[in-house]
Write a structure and sequence with these properties.
Order of helices and strands of chain C: HHHHHEEHEHEEHEEHEEEHHEHEE
Number of domains of chain C: 2
Radius of gyration of chain B: 31 Å
Chains: A mainly alpha (about 90), B alpha+beta (about 290), C alpha+beta (about 350)
Helix content of chain B: 10-25%
Strand content of chain B: 5-15%
Shape of chain C: globular
Oligomer: heterotrimer
Strand content of chain C: 15-25%
CATH topology of the largest domain in chain C: Alpha-Beta Plaits
Largest sheet of chain B: 4 strands, mixed
Strand order of the largest sheet of chain B: 5-6-10-9
Largest sheet of chain C: 4 strands, mixed
Low-confidence stretches of chain B: 15-32, 275-292
Order of helices and strands of chain B: HEEEEEEHEEHHEEHH
Low-confidence stretches of chain C: 1-17, 33-45, 147-175
Strand order of the largest sheet of chain C: 11-2-13-12
Number of helices of chain C: 12
């Protein structure tokens, strides 16, 4: 085992280049992959909390907006004027 | 030596494998965060239109082949019709009606106004294919009533549970003011004119003139089909929304509502809304009119 | 996980392979793992992945030539048909001439059954869950002084028969009924004695503030008065949502969930075609129906006939008759947006 290691450090051994490549590839692969997994985990967790908050906020917003509204009767004149505006303002543009 | 290096490589490979599995697990988890689609339940095929226990409908597939539409879609929870694929399914022309004084003359063209006929839906009516109600109400089996005096009925309690409690016209209207005493296949108006069960509007309109006019104009009642004035529409008839026997208790008989919206993730309950209930007092109530 | 990767993984688990082969595989796997993991961070989500490049680079619908529109529609029809495993049609029907759509709802009749809400979801292919999207919301309000009986005799306002609503015009002083209530009500039966119900949806304003604020002009008013959205061009900035006085627009925070068997295959490019994540959507008065002459899904499903719909330019239309004859309300707002959705009482 230790002999093996020594040879490795010294750069001895028949299949040095192959082994080194595999090692590098494996370790590098693991490093990149785990890094990516962690990054993905972080990234996907942030919008999830955000999503919940955002939906809640959307939900509450309509309450808030409607609370400021008031329901009022339109007078005959108001209605007629409005209809007139719709009719005269109509323009067909393809 | 060789064993050692192989062990090392195997270790690395195992680590890689674990990582792959880990990623796999993570990915599965990620998918589970987006909850799996709830299995779509088999569609409910029987439901009612407007009045529970009145106009019963059955879903028929592919009534509109162009889009693969069924005639109707029923609610999964309340037993009500929830969507119309074919608005004219099971309809016939409304029949003759006199013009009314309106820009559209009552918005009425015989062939373009259709209804769902009532007669085919009446249980007792269809017990005898030829004689209909007269099978029993022939003056012999069941004698014709001598007067309109209120009395308990022994039959038809599925329609009117307690005839002594019947309330229409604040007690002034009785069964035989609308049902024809000598020909139970028909209704009858106050002038003695026979009216088909398919055309109750001709009877109701005799007293409820404003509603009738507005119904003819299209601003009372329900219509489905095409929106343009004079286009083909199915008209709902008076009794398809109102129960004439109990209309004074409920204009519309209360229904089970469709489910409330699902609270968004992160909202535990709808308590934010209840603060506006009157019990909380003050601000939440409708602006009191008395203050101005 | 891609099938290729999986099969390789299974091979790794096997014991019969040679050392050399094993090394080769292991190296390839770690590289593949790295690539897969890295790509999962930036990978487009499923729905977006299905979007073709052509779709991605297409122009704003309003600015497309007829030929481009046809192509865009054909692309979508193909994609949706594959995705939902049935024949999906995408219509591009323009507004009809001499038609301006208007809507009227009898607030006195509405029983709060929410059938309209669910008919709309079915017709317009909204996301069914996570997040559930509904274009109509029904607000339940305590009757208080605002009773049906009072409404019947309440116009014009007088001390004896007032019900909290002041006559319109400019006399806006302590007037109107504030619209506060609950959306999540769930009684056994509706209507409840002490409540009335107020459905809210896009009012297709004649002067729509949402259109004014859209930085990419993906939402615009068509000649028939419908405010439409080209979902492909929408950047999801949500400016229009903030501008809407009724908060009638909805945002797809996540990928919409629409079961294939419930998908309505009759769609319109500017209407009920399936949406993607990150776009804004709203009621279009069912333009895939109404531009073909049919009533909206909500009008047809209302069990009490509280909803009417028609052409505001036609005096014989149901909406115009209601405007002529009934007591019509409007929501008092800071700005005059002229909604074409009216609330009325008998």
């Amino acid at each position: 085992m230790s002999e093996d290691k020594e040879r490795e450090v010294k750069g001895e051994g028949v299949d040095f280049s192959k082994r080194a490549f595999i090692k590098t590839a494996l370790i590098g692969g693991i490093a990149v992959a785990s890094g990516a997994v962690i990054a993905k985990k972080i990234v996907s967790n942030i919008p999830n909390t955000g999503l919940a908050n955002a939906s809640v906020s959307d939900e509450l917003q309509q309450d808030r907006v409607m609370k400021d509204k008031e329901f009022v009767v339109m007078s005959k004149e108001e209605k007629d004027r409005m209809v007139q505006m719709f009719v005269s303002g109509y323009k067909y543009t393809a | 030596m060789k064993i050692g290096s192989i062990a090392k490589v195997i270790f690395s490979a195992a680590a890689t494998g674990a990582l792959i599995l880990g990623v796999g697990k993570f990915r599965t988890e990620a998918q589970q965060e987006q909850p799996a689609r709830p299995a779509v339940a088999a569609p409910v095929t029987d439901c009612f239109e407007s009045r529970e226990g009145y106009t019963a409908r059955s879903r028929v597939e592919n009534v509109v082949p162009e889009y693969g539409y069924p005639n109707i879609i029923c609610s999964q929870t309340t037993g009500g019709v929830l969507w119309w694929g074919d608005p004219y399914d099971e309809t016939i022309p409304i029949g003759d009606m006199p013009d009314i004084d309106d820009v559209t003359k009552g918005d009425y063209l015989t062939e373009d106004a259709v209804i769902k006929p009532r007669e085919p839906q009446l249980t007792y009516f269809n017990m005898d294919p030829d004689k209909h109600c007269v099978m029993c109400h022939d003056g012999m089996t069941v004698p014709f009533p001598k007067d309109k005096k209120p009395r308990l009925i022994t039959m038809h309690q599925d329609i009117v549970e307690d005839s002594m409690e019947l309330m229409h016209g604040e007690g002034a209207i009785w069964c035989l003011d609308c049902h024809n005493a000598t020909n139970r296949n028909t209704l009858i108006d106050h002038r003695g004119k026979e009216i088909s069960f398919n055309q109750p509007q001709k009877l109701c309109g005799k007293c409820h003139g404003v509603e009738y006019r507005h119904w003819r104009m299209g601003i009372h009642g329900k219509r489905i089909g095409s929106w343009n004035a004079g286009g083909k529409k199915r008209w709902w008839l008076c009794t398809e929304c109102h129960n004439p026997h109990t209309v004074q208790i409920n204009r519309f008989r209360p229904l089970k509502p469709e489910p409330a919206p699902v609270l968004p993730k992160g909202m535990k309950n709808a308590a934010h809304e209840s603060v506006h209930a009157p019990s909380a007092g003050g601000h939440g109530e409708a602006t009191p009119a008395a203050t101005h | 996980m891609p099938a290729e990767e999986k099969s390789k993984m299974e091979e790794v688990k096997g014991t019969t392979i040679s050392r050399r082969q094993f090394f080769k595989e292991a190296g390839a796997i770690s590289a593949a793992v790295a690539a897969a993991a890295a790509s999962s961070v930036i990978a487009p989500e499923e729905a977006e992945a299905k979007t073709t490049f052509a779709e991605f680079f297409q122009n704003n619908y309003r600015l497309m030539t007829d030929e481009e529109k046809k192509e865009a529609i054909a692309r979508l029809e193909k994609r949706y048909s594959e995705e939902f495993a049935k024949k999906v049609t995408v219509d591009g029907a323009p507004a009809m001439q001499d038609v301006l759509f208007g809507y009227a709802l009898n607030i006195q009749k509405c029983i709060g059954c929410r059938r309209c809400v669910h008919a709309c979801v079915k017709e317009n292919n909204q996301s069914r869950h996570d997040t559930e999207i509904q274009w109509i919301r029904v607000l339940r309000m305590e009757k208080g002084n605002f009773t049906v009986e009072d409404m019947d005799k309440g116009y014009p306002n007088s001390p004896n028969e007032s019900f909290g609503i002041q006559v319109g015009g400019n006399a806006y002083k302590n007037a109107g009924v504030a619209l506060e209530g609950q959306h999540y009500y769930q009684p056994e039966r509706v209507p409840e004695k002490d409540a009335f119900y107020f459905p809210v949806q896009c009012m297709q304003c004649e002067k729509p503030p949402c259109v004014k604020v859209c930085p990419v002009r993906t939402t615009y008013r068509d000649p028939d008065g419908i405010v439409v959205i080209d979902y492909n061009w929408c950047i999801g900035c949500r400016m229009c949502m903030g501008a809407c006085p009724y908060w009638a627009r909805r945002f797809d925070w996540g990928d919409p969930h629409l079961p294939a068997e419930e998908m309505n295959p009759k769609t319109h490019y500017l209407g009920n075609r399936p949406r993607m994540r990150g776009v804004v959507e709203k009621c279009t008065f069912c333009l895939q129906r109404t531009r073909k002459g049919r009533y909206t899904a909500c009008v047809e499903v209302c069990p009490v006939g509280a909803r009417t719909f028609g052409n505001l330019l036609d005096p014989a239309s149901e909406v115009r008759k209601i405007l002529d004859r009934k007591k019509v309300f409007r929501l008092k707002a800071d700005m005059n947006t002229y909604p074409k959705f009216f609330y009325f009482i008998d």
